[in-house]
Design goal:
With 76 residues, the chain is mostly helical. It has one domain. The protein is built from 3 helices and 2 strands. α1 packs across α2. The longest helix has 13 residues. The model has no long low-confidence stretch (mean pLDDT 86).
Length: 76
């Protein structure tokens, strides 16, 4: 997420665009790599599949939101 591999910040946040892209790539591989804006198709796919409800790429994700998305992904 733009940090070197020796940096870990469990209290930090990531944007929905960042985490959604990572989750989408983990679930679907490169299937949604078609947009000039890297996260658009990834967030749309997660929304279509009921994993996320809000596709605002600027939302800051907390550990709770990340866990909720992972639980929804597992159930799909």
């Amino acid at each position: 997420m733009g940090k070197d591999s020796t940096t870990f910040n469990p209290s930090g946040t990531v944007t929905r665009a960042q985490f959604g892209t990572i989750l989408s790539r983990a679930l679907y591989g490169t299937m949604y790599e078609n947009s000039e804006i890297y996260y658009i198709d990834h967030l749309d796919a997660l929304h279509t599949n009921g994993i996320i409800k809000n596709t605002d790429p600027n939302l800051k994700e907390t550990r709770g939101n990340v866990m909720l998305m992972l639980m929804r992904a597992e159930s799909n």
